[in-house]
Amino acid sequence: MEDLTEMLKGTLEGCVLEIIGGEETYGYAITRRLNELGFTDVIDGTVYTILLRLERNGLVQVTKRPSEVGPPRKFYALNDAGRAELATFWAKWQYVSSRIDKLKEGGR
Amino acid sequence: MSFWETITGNDLTRDWHAFETRAAALPAGHRAAWEQIRQHLFPFGDFTGRNLTPIADAALGLLEEAAADGRDVPEVLGDDIPGFCAALAGGEGARTFRDRWRDQLNRDVARKLARLGG
């Protein structure tokens, strides 16, 4: 689906955390995963700025691994703070989505 | 970083030379994007611009990875390079002149209001 950027803004960081939480991975692979999920608007640049923010906030562990072509790749894994942040994200998501569903059902 | 380097900015000149060498090895499209990124990052610099070094290094790293994977610039950065630069520089540690002026102004106003007994 296109034109989701505005709607995704607040949640993309949580999505990236969830993907990293599954297995240690790198930027381009995260972008591809999001694209496969149907978030076709998401580009590397966006994912990259999110990864930098996660790194600055101490939520991920970063390992540089040599790649077959080009410069070494940075691989990201969640640390304890990252896992706590991910749990908080899902709790907030649960709250928001349940409220919005309720609104759609006419407040019943 | 030694005291001497802090004063002269020698380390900065060296870092930026290294960046330019790396950029020169990029394909033309990626090199052009690097030029644009450099320009758009500049306003986020602090007094010496030292805060920009890690940000520029990160941006260049992304371009290098993209070039190695054979992905072109629009695919990687979209069409909003200024926005990308703002997002890169926007985190903590990217304090600009404007932020400092704003803080200073806020402090002055708060002090004056306090004096008025407000």
UniProtKB/TrEMBL annotation, chain A:
A single MF term (Gene Ontology): DNA binding
Domain Transcription regulator PadR N-terminal, residue spans: 16-87
Gene3D superfamilies noted in UniProt: Winged helix-like DNA-binding domain superfamily/Winged helix DNA-binding domain
Pfam families for this protein: PadR
Keyword Ligase tagged: no
Entry keywords, A to Z: DNA-binding
PANTHER family linked to this entry: PADR-FAMILY TRANSCRIPTIONAL REGULATOR, TRANSCRIPTIONAL REGULATOR RV3488
Name of the protein this chain belongs to: DNA-binding PadR family transcriptional regulator
Native organism taxonomy: Bacteria, Bacillati, Actinomycetota, Actinomycetes, Micromonosporales
From TrEMBL, chain B:
SUPFAM superfamilies linked: BH3980-like (SSF158560)
Pfam assignment, any one: DUF1048
InterPro entries listed in its UniProt record: UCP029876
UniProt protein name: DNA-binding ferritin-like protein (Dps family)
